[in-house]
Amino acid sequence: MSLETHIPRSDRQERWVGRALIVGAAVCLIGTGGLLWWRQGADVFSNVVSAALAWCF
Fold first, then answer.
1. Which of 19, 31, 35, 51 has a CA that sits 20 to 30 A from residue 3's CA?
2. ∠ CA 42-33-26 to the nearest 5 degrees?
3. Is 42 helix (H, G, I), strand (E, B) or coil?
């Protein structure tokens, strides 16, 4: 008798797609941050990030 739980294939696919979307979003955010840093420099980038965070809260 097996104690392992059986996960249907569709559930595994949904989990994989969800994880792929989260990783893709994180990569896009990191890439955007790197692009801003490269184009605008550290000082301007820090001001932009600070202003964005202040606007959110």
1. 19
2. 150
3. helix
Amino acid 15: pLDDT: 81
Q: How many CB atoms lie within 10 A of CB 53?
A: 9
pTM score: 0.57
- Are 4 and 12 a contacting pair, CB within 8 Å? no
Residues ≥6 apart with Cβ < 8 Å to 36: 45, 48
Reported as a single tens digit per residue, the pLDDT across 15-43 is: 888 899 999 999 999 998 888 888 888 88
Check if the beta carbon of residue 48 is closer than 8 Å to that of residue 36.
yes
